[in-house]
Structures are given as structure tokens and as C-alpha cells.
Amino acid sequence: MRIAMAQLNPIVGDIAGNTARIIGAMQQARQRGAELVITSELALIGYPPRDLLLKPAVLAQMEQAVQRLAAASRGFATLVGYVQKNTAAAGRTLYNAVALVQDGQVLHRGYKSLLPTYDVFDESRYFEPGPQVEIADWSNEKIGLSICEDLWNDEQVAGRPLYHFNPIAALAGAGATLLVNLSASPFVLGKNDFRRKLIAHQARRWRLPIIYVNQVGANDELIFDGNSTACDAQGRLLAQGRDFEEDLVVFDLPERAGDAAGRPGTILTAGERSATGEPAASVAVAAPWPEPRRDMAALHAALLLGLRDYARKCGFKTAVVGLSGGIDSALVGVLAAEAFGPRNVTGVALPSRYSSDHSQSDAARLAAALGIQFHIVPLEALHRALETTLGPLFAGTAPGLAEENMQARLRGTILMALSNKFGHLLLTTGNKSEIATGYCTLYGDMAGGLAVISDVPKTMVYRLARYINAQAVANGRPPPIPEGSLTKAPSAELRPNQTDQDSLPPYDVLDAILQRYVEEEKSVGTIVEEGFAAPTVLKVARLVDLNEYKRKQMPPGLKVTSRAFGWGRRMPIAQRYDPAAMTEQPASCPR
Q1: Residue 209's pLDDT band (boundaries 50, 70, 90)?
Q2: 140: buried, middle or exposed (CB in 10 Å: 19+, 13-18, 0-12)?
């Protein structure tokens, strides 16, 4: 059987556009001999649709789209992810569904059984769990239908199961000969290795081939990496979709889906021709599948995709970024130039009375290396005017944080003015370490439309910057990020001789604590037991907890770690949680 995995990049809510995109992929797949085309989860509306699902017109449009796909699926079948009305007398009114369509008919419908409500997921807000697992009889196959989370409840790989029901076990027990999973699984660093392990294990465990089709593209905070995968009944890789880009992977499944012996599949790549000159549509051209990127290569690709798609789907064609000469703004500048093209990026240096000469020169070097537009807008006159205006109100008080933040807020005002005037997307440059501890200024450096590296810890910022420079050198180009930006002590430059470490622990220590406290949700006592100084751990924990109000007002940020600030981390603002209270070892956690 020849199968096509249609790994597409939908625009959330664009039902008509997504339908046309799927039909285009179906036509290409049919030209290449596919008998079955498989899309991703909620492919017709895009994932996650959130409260668009509450609009009554969505259901009618969705059913029209399913019928349109059925009419277009002539001589072959298509599995499409969509939203289906629940007609039962009780329960939530929608199903997260999959339809098997062919020759103008809907042959079968199936529903997602497991609805995640952790991290960025909130599916129980909208969907009713499927009443039972569904097997579609088609072309001498019994296709076990599953959707995303249904595949993940395997205690042998994932540890403690989150649900009492295992849909994959139920499908295997009901006689499925082929397992299909339509997915919208967001990117997290390192997740794809685990995902491939899980899919291969499930195939071996149930002695069934598995075809897993994942969404690709970015929607708001979430990035979807694609990496659609097909395994035979022994867990061996049959086909692999590209990472971070659309792909149509056509491959041959073993003749008998339940045959554990299996055989390697072949991929038909668009545009390839046989030795006779025939297009690849008529012949099977063996091609190696692309190896997914890992570590900094994957992070780089993810951030680029997230930035490009946010801009494209929101209608931005140009960007502006404040360039301080530091490593964070340098990294964001590089990503902006790659995502938008150098001609469409404006870098702005905003020196104050406390800015060093090398800050401005490093910003200029970066702009020249990237080929972006570059402007210098000094703050001194504005800063003096603001001090004069507020002088009578501040009389008799010592200079402090308010005076420092004036400069940051002036920078934000200037950059937002450029954004408003020219339609640029303003990119903020704060990293996860700063945002976690509140080392950022509301309406200042936090002002903007997208927080590109808000989920990238400071130590990882350096790793990614060095990776980008190394890649440039390997490709025969000079490194874009100046050495000074990589080697000088980080500073907000809001007072004389200021460095970040005046207020924060060294970044290697800070990031190690944040990893444990934020991402792993470990207690202060546990972190201290792991060898960190108790006063430092308490300081960091309290900074994280006290600055939730700032993070609630930041722009959306691209999620790349397992626990990002934003939609997936739902902490209260008005609260008095004390990480040192009720500890079993109060002596080790001084208050």
C-alpha cells in the first residue's frame, strides 16, 4: 500500500485556506500513486484553535470542508483531522475528530479518547472524550484511528500513566492491522528523540505498523516541528518527514500491515525522475529520509520557524529590534535578519549616559555584518527632560530603580514609535533567566510584539550564539555576532559600572536553579540538598514568585523548553506562597 503523510502548516481559523492546502497535497499525493493520504490533528482549523471553537459557525464550516475533501478524494482515501459535533444529550458539545473520506463519502469517523489538560493543553474545555475507540475497515485493512495524546499513555515508556485507559492497547485488542495517529505535538528541545522512541516501542509492543503525522509550523507561542514518522511492526523506520517545514512523504507500507517481518519503505520525492525520464509520480525512488536536527541546530530552526510564522500569520513583513551591543539583542538581530531578510530589519542603538563605547560599536558591527538598517538614537536629551519634569515630585528621595527604569522605558517608547510609524514588528530581547527573576522593565525592554528568546536561558543564549557563528564560518562567511558581545560582562547599563551579577547569581548557577525550580518544580529544600547555597536558592525562588505580574504583561514568547512562561504556566499573581515555609529542615532554608 502506498501512503502519503501530508505534513502541513495550517493557519489557525483559516478553514477555507487550510482546506485548499489539504486538497493541493491530496492531488500531489495522488499523482505520486498514493492510495491513502493522512493529515494532522485538527488540520482543517489548525491547532490550537482555542475559543474559536466556541463560535457556532465553525461547526458548519467544518462539515462543509469535510464534504469538500470527500468530493476531492476520488480513487483514493483521505484521513483528515477536524471538529465534530457531539449529538449526545450530555457532555461537551464537540469531539476532536478524524474522518475517513473517499469518492464523495465519509466512510468513517473517529474521536480522540484522551484529552490533555496539562502544560499548554486545555482540551477538556472544549471536547468530549470519544465514547469508544474506532477501527475503520478500508482496503483489506483495519485502521486503528487515534489522535495525538491517545498514543502517549504507554506506561512502559512514559512511566506513570496519566489516564486509566490506553487507546492503543484497545485498538490492538480490537483487531487493528494498522495504527494511525493524527497529531499536533509541540516542539520542545529533545522531545523528538523521545517521540521516536515511543512510536517504535508502541509498534513493537503491539506488533503493528504505526503512521504518525504531525503538524508543522508555529501558532502564537507554540512551534510544531513536523517529524512525521512511520514504523513497521518491528519498530523499524519506514519513512520520516522533514523537521520544521512542510513535507509530503509518500512511502510503501509492507503488503500485509500485520506482517511483523516488514520491509523498508521507499520515499517518493517531488521532482525526482527515473532513469527513463519519467517523473517520480510513476516510479518508486528510494531516498534516505532526513535526519532530524538536535540541540542547538534544532533550537535555531525552531526559533526561526516561530518568528517567521508569527510574522507571516499576523501580517508583519518588517521588524525592528533594539541593539545594545549585548549578546541577547545580537542573537535576536541575527534571527530577525534570517527570518525577515536583512533589508526588512531595522536595528536601533539607544545609548544613554551609562552606555560604554563598545556597546555602540558592537551594535554597529552586528548591523554591518547582517546587512540590516541601523540607526543611533541617543537618550540623553530625553532622559534629562524626564528628570527635570519629575524632579519636583522626586525631591528629597535618593536616586534608585525608578531613575534607572526611566532609560529603559524611553527605549521602549522610541522603539514602539518606530513600530507604529512603519508597521514593524517590535521584537523584545529578554531571555528566560532575566524574565524569570524580573530583571526586566515593564513598558521598557519588555515592550514589543513578540518575545523571541523569552524561553531561552542565558547560558543557552551563549551556546546558540556560538553555534550560529560556527555555522557561518563553516559556510565560508564571517561570524555575524561580534566577539565583544560574547565575551563582555552582561549589563543593563542603567547605572555606572553596572553588571547583571550585581543583582543576580552567576548565570550558570542561576540557570541551574531555574531549571530545577521552574521546569522541574522542585522545592527549595530539594535544590539546596543538591548542593546549591540556601540563600541563593531562596533569593531566586522568591524573585521568580514575586515577578509573575511582569510576566503576565509580556508579549507572547516562543516556547522551546518543557516549562515556558506564558500560556502553559498558570501561576497566580496575588498570592503569598513562601518557598521556605513549612520546610522539614528550616535551618538549611533561612528566612
Answers
A1: very high
A2: exposed
Distance CA 458, CA 91 (A): 46
CA dihedral 472, 478, 483, 486 (to 10 degrees): -20
Lowest mean pLDDT, pick from 9-13, 226-230, 330-334, 493-497: 493-497
- What are the distances in angstroms from CA 113 to CA 86, 164, 165? 14, 11, 9
Catalytic residue list contains 148: yes
CA 52 to centroid of chain Cα atoms? 20
Q: How far is CA 227 from CA 271, 292, 507, 508, 536, in A?
A: 21, 7, 33, 32, 40
Among 547, 551, 545, 579, which residue's Cα sits nearest to residue 565? 551
Determine whether 112 is an active site residue.
yes
282: pLDDT strictly greater than 50: no
C-alpha–C-alpha distance, residues 196 and 204, integer Å: 12
* pLDDT tens string 387-419: 999 999 999 999 998 988 999 999 999 999 999
Separation CA 229–CA 183 (nearest Å): 11
d(CA 4, CA 273): 18
* pLDDT-based confidence at residue 269 (cuts at 50, 70, 90): very low
Asked if 450 contacts 218 with a C-beta cutoff of 8 angstroms, the reply is: no
- 77 grid coordinates: 482515501
pLDDT surpasses 50 at 586:
no
Per-residue pLDDT tens for 513-559? 999 999 999 999 999 999 999 999 999 999 999 999 999 999 999 99
Map 87-110 to HEC letters: CCCCCCCEEEEEEEEECCEEEEEE
Question: Does 6 score more than 80 pLDDT?
Answer: yes
For the chain, the straight-line distance linking the first and the last C-alpha, in angstroms and rounded, comes to: 67
What is the pairing mode between strands 141-147 and 105-111?
A: unpaired
Neighbours of 314 (CB within 10 A): 11
Which CA distances in Å does 130 have to 135, 208, 231, 247, 414? Answer: 13, 22, 26, 29, 52
What confidence tens digit (pLDDT) does each residue in 417-430 have?
Answer: 999 999 999 999 99
Strand 319-322 to strand 345-349: parallel, antiparallel, or no bridges (unpaired)?
parallel
Active site residue 529: no
pLDDT band at 583 (very low <50, low <70, confident <90, very high): low
For 191-344, where are the E strands, in sequence order?
Answer: 210-214, 216-219, 222-225, 229-231, 237-240, 247-252, 267-268, 319-322
CA torsion 108-113-119-122 (nearest 10°) is: 70
Q: pTM here?
A: 0.92
* Cα distance between residue 446 and residue 249, in whole Å: 41
> For position 358, what pLDDT does the model report?
82
| Close Cβ partners of 97 (under 8 Å, ≥ 6 residues apart) | 81, 82, 83, 84, 109, 110, 111, 112, 147
Of 148, 231, 440, 589, which is the active-site residue? 148
Residue type, 108: H
Nearest Cα to Cα of residue 534 among 518, 523, 520: 523
What's the per-residue H, E or C state across 463-501? HHHHHHHHHHHHCCCCCCCCHHHHHCCCCCCCCCCCCHH
pLDDT attached to residue 256: 65
8 A C-beta contact, residue 209 and residue 231:
yes
Domains (range + CATH), the chain: 2-292 (3.60.110.10), 297-500+548-561 (3.40.50.620)
